[in-house]
């Protein structure tokens, strides 16, 4: 009986646990004393402007890159269209900061471009615009993947309408197709924005002063934790606004998908210039976003195989074990919490759900420090050093940070479980556990797998929290790449980057196959 | 095999943490492969296992502060005296004294209370584009802030620890007003808004985007010996100029270490520090990373020797560290990004 009464609170309690690191940060700031006038000295306008420009710029780029390429491969047949359906998702496997290092290696003074062409100048890509292009190239797959699924889901009736109206392909795209897949595109844009906002490595390297950089600068550079937390608070307001917009888009998508029919459309065969144009666009995008960075890394790996290969096996093993483990933990949490959120739709559960999604927008290092504060307090209360510096703390931080990604993926599975189905399942399986395992899980298995892969990819690329929380003598490929980059040994990071990319590429391919099936 | 070894060592670490004997735990901001080799040498010589967590100095310091007496760390190793000073100010280090350390490390490169010790020296200098700049026209750090300074400067952000310490040294020599006027002058003479790391500043000077760059010398050592032809070309284009040779000497920073207040393996920690200033370890530091050894008995690397000898500023580094907060204020007031 006691346990039964707790059930409606399982989801809210979990949401509360996930927000603990942030609450601890706030408490810590309050304990050290808060002065309100300090808000004016925080350069907030600069951070807001850079972040907004970055989000808008990257948004526009990924909209064009991801949206257009998804439209082309989903609706048309041309040389390579099948290949591009799969391969255009691959850049998701490369961390943005690695793409940034690689491109700077090309364009920097006496860099690869200068070596190949003999032209030397001082054209630098380390600007806001450079960062926008790098993010655009490395993040458009977020849009591509969801948009392609949406374009594939459009029914043939849309095309019939287009044909009847006799409108051209360009107008048809904007007037007929785009409005229908717009919600899906928006969700892709939302994911991209979250990634851009929480990024630290790339923006720092490119000298773009986003909120994330501001938090670090205030905290570590100026030793002003209260100031840093204030910037983080402003950032969270920013993100909450985006979250609201996203939930509206989701509601619209449900409405839009209502019109999809079971009879999908035959792909249209492109000929002549149109086929060439479609091929050129996809090929150029794939080359810039994937082939070029990988080629640069390959070149570096050949230049400097010695320091790059040092204990590579150990780093790979460390990366794989922690990433698979935490992805599994995150998905199990997401599954259990969603199950109870769906089963007991209380207002509290809804609030907890929204709050627990915040982690995605908070820079990894902020989550890291929050987790550190939380578990150190527990350790202090216990009078023992039990939790600090263990894998438990690291995995907890990953859960806080990437749980939203897992939930996002799993949610699409749970949206299929209607209230009627729930009621019916109560007859079929007795007890929550049985219903969870025998009814719900089989229904969301596919979404669970997608979520697992997405979280695995995200965790593989994570950097600041891992740096901050990892136990003694524990390194991952990402931390190793960071070390080599911060020692300014770019060629040496070729080999470990390639290993990391191979690992995440497998996950991206599996994800792509899953979603596109 | 590697992974089996890795798993085994992970288990060992877990087991030995319970016994807390025969080991020493480091929080280190230095993460060069050569440092790892040094620790291995120490392990084989003494049988003391070295456990390391690598991260940025500021993050490790935050971790030390938060963990307090519970921290498993015995030694905090980092670059830049500002970080060491901050650690002392935060009360996470303890005073230790050792005849070996005091004999080998010059007085101005260690804390007056024995809370931190310099392990290597890092000279912060002016690097110039050989085609555009006549080194005879360069003189002092002060000149960089001169309204008549004929060159454009590339320099990192003021949040960077090396620049914070450089401003700290300027405050020590010229007072706050003098340092502020200088910082404003430097900002006015900048070729571009500060961005990137030391390596990028040197590149900016090599490419001609700037005429001169302010950076630490060992980066040039890495350019010279790099496997990347692009790096080697940069090294050829820039010259190294040691400023303030006719007065107090060139500003020198350190990477250094302190024993933490919470150290449970203090004895081993002291052994490690003493090992790190031994000729063997110092030679490794100096030759692998092109830094200057604190142990005067050790020769500098041939690459570094080629830049010539110089007179160094012997202003006690604790005085530089003390000025950290003032440096930040001055940089903000001077609108040094």
UniProtKB/TrEMBL annotation, chain A:
Cell compartment(s), UniProt: Cell inner membrane; Cell membrane
Source species, domain of life: Bacteria
PROSITE patterns named among the record's database cross-references: ABC_TM1
Entry keywords, A to Z: Cell inner membrane, Cell membrane, Membrane, Transmembrane, Transmembrane helix, Transport
Keyword Transmembrane found: yes
InterPro entries on file: MetI-like, MetI-like_sf
Entry keyword Transmembrane helix: yes
Source organism: Sulfurospirillum tamanense
Family of the protein in this entry: Belongs to the binding-protein-dependent transport system permease family.
Principal location: membrane
Stated name of the protein: Iron ABC transporter permease
A Pfam family reported for this protein in Swiss-Prot or TrEMBL: BPD_transp_1
Domain called ABC transmembrane type-1: residue spans: 48-244, 316-511
Automatic annotation (TrEMBL), chain B:
Database matches in SUPFAM superfamilies: Periplasmic binding protein-like II
Signal peptide: 1-20
CDD domains given in the database record: PBP2_FutA1_ilke (cd13542)
One matching Pfam family: SBP_bac_8
InterPro entries registered for this protein in UniProt: Ferric-bd, SBP
Protein origin, superkingdom: Bacteria
Keywords attached to this entry: Signal
Residue spans crossing the bilayer: none
Protein family membership: Belongs to the bacterial solute-binding protein 1 family.
Protein name per UniProt: Fe(3+) ABC transporter substrate-binding protein
Native source species: Sulfurospirillum tamanense
Lineage start: Bacteria, Pseudomonadati, Campylobacterota, Epsilonproteobacteria, Campylobacterales
């Amino acid at each position: 009986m006691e346990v039964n009464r707790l059930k409606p609170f399982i989801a809210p309690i979990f949401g509360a646990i996930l927000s603990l690191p942030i609450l601890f940060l706030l408490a810590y700031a309050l304990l050290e004393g808060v002065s309100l006038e300090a808000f004016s000295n925080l350069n907030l306008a600069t951070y807001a402007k850079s972040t907004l420009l970055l989000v808008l710029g990257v948004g526009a780029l990924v909209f064009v890159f991801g949206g257009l390429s998804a439209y082309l491969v989903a609706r048309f047949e041309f040389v390579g269209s099948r290949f591009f359906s799969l391969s255009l998702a691959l850049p998701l496997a490369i961390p943005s900061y690695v793409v940034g290092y690689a491109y700077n290696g090309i364009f920097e003074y006496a860099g690869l471009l200068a070596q190949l062409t003999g032209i030397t100048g001082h054209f630098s890509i380390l600007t806001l615009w450079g960062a926008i292009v790098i993010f655009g190239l490395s993040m458009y797959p977020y849009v591509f993947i969801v948009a392609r699924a949406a374009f594939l889901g459009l029914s043939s009736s849309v095309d019939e309408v287009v044909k009847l109206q006799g409108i051209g392909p360009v107008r048809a795209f904007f007037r007929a197709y785009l409005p229908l897949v717009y919600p899906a595109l928006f969700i892709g844009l939302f994911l991209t924005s979250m990634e851009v906002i929480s990024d630290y490595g790339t923006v720092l390297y490119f000298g773009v002063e986003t909120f994330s950089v501001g938090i670090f600068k205030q905290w570590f550079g100026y030793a002003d934790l209260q100031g840093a937390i204030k910037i983080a608070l402003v950032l969270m307001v920013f993100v909450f606004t985006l979250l609201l917009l996203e939930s509206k888009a989701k509601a619209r998508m449900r409405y839009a998908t209502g019109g999809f029919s079971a009879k999908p459309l035959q792909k249209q065969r492109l000929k002549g210039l149109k086929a060439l144009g479609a091929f050129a666009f996809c090929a150029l995008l794939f080359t810039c976003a994937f082939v070029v960075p990988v080629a640069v890394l390959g070149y570096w790996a050949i230049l400097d195989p010695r320091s790059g290969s040092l204990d590579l096996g150990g780093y790979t093993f460390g990366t794989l074990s922690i990433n698979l483990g935490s992805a599994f933990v995150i998905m199990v949490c997401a599954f259990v919490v969603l199950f109870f959120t769906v089963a007991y739709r209380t207002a509290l559960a809804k609030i907890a759900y929204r709050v627990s999604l915040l982690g995605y927008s908070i820079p990894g290092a902020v989550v890291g420090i929050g987790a550190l504060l939380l578990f150190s307090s527990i350790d202090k209360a216990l009078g023992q050093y039990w939790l600090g510096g263990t894998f438990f703390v690291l995995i907890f931080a990953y859960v806080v940070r990437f749980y939203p990604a897992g939930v996002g993926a799993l949610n699409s599975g749970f949206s299929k479980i209607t209230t009627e189905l729930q009621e019916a399942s109560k007859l079929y399986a007795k007890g929550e556990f049985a219903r969870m395992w025998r009814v719900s899980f089989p229904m969301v298995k596919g979404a669970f797998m997608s979520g697992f892969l997405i979280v695995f990819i995200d965790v593989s690329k994570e950097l600041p929290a891992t740096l901050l929380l990892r136990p003694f003598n524990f390194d991952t490929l990402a931390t190793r790449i960071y070390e080599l980059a911060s020692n300014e040994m770019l060629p040496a990071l070729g080999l470990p980057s390639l290993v990391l990319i191979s690992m995440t590429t497998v996950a991206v391919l599996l994800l792509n196959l899953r979603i596109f099936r | 095999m590697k992974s089996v070894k890795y798993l085994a060592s992970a288990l060992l670490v877990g087991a030995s943490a319970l016994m807390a004997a025969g080991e020493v735990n480091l929080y280190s901001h230095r993460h060069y492969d050569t440092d790892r080799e040094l620790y291995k040498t120490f392990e084989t010589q003494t049988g003391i296992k070295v456990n390391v967590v690598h991260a940025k100095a500021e993050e490790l310091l935050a971790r030390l502060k938060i963990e307090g007496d519970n921290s498993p760390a015995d030694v905090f190793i980092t670059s830049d005296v500002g970080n060491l000073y901050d650690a002392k100010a935060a009360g996470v280090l303890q005073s230790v004294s050792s005849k070996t350390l005091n004999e080998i490390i010059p007085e101005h490169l260690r804390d007056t209370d024995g809370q931190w010790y310099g392990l290597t020296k890092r000279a912060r200098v002016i690097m110039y584009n050989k085609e555009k700049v006549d080194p005879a026209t360069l003189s002092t750090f002060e000149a960089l802030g001169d309204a008549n300074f004929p060159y454009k400067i590339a320099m990192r952000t003021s949040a960077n620890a090396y620049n914070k310490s450089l401003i700290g040294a300027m405050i020590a020599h010229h007072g706050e007003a003098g340092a502020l006027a200088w910082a404003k002058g430097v900002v006015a003479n900048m070729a571009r808004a500060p961005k990137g790391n030391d390596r990028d500043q040197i590149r900016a000077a090599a490419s001609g985007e700037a005429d001169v760059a302010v950076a630490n010398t060992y980066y040039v050592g890495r350019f010279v010996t790099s496997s990347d032809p692009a790096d080697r070309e940069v090294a050829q284009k820039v010259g190294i100029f040691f400023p303030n040779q006719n007065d107090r000497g060139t500003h020198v920073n350190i990477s250094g270490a302190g024993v933490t207040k919470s150290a449970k393996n203090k004895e081993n920690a002291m052994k490690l520090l003493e090992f790190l200033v031994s000729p063997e370890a110092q030679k490794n530091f100096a030759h692998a990373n092109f830094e200057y050894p604190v142990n005067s008995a050790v020769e500098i690397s041939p690459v570094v020797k080629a830049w010539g000898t110089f007179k160094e500023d012997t202003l006690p580094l604790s005085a530089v560290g003390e000025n950290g907060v003032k440096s930040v204020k001055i940089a903000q007031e001077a609108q040094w990004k």
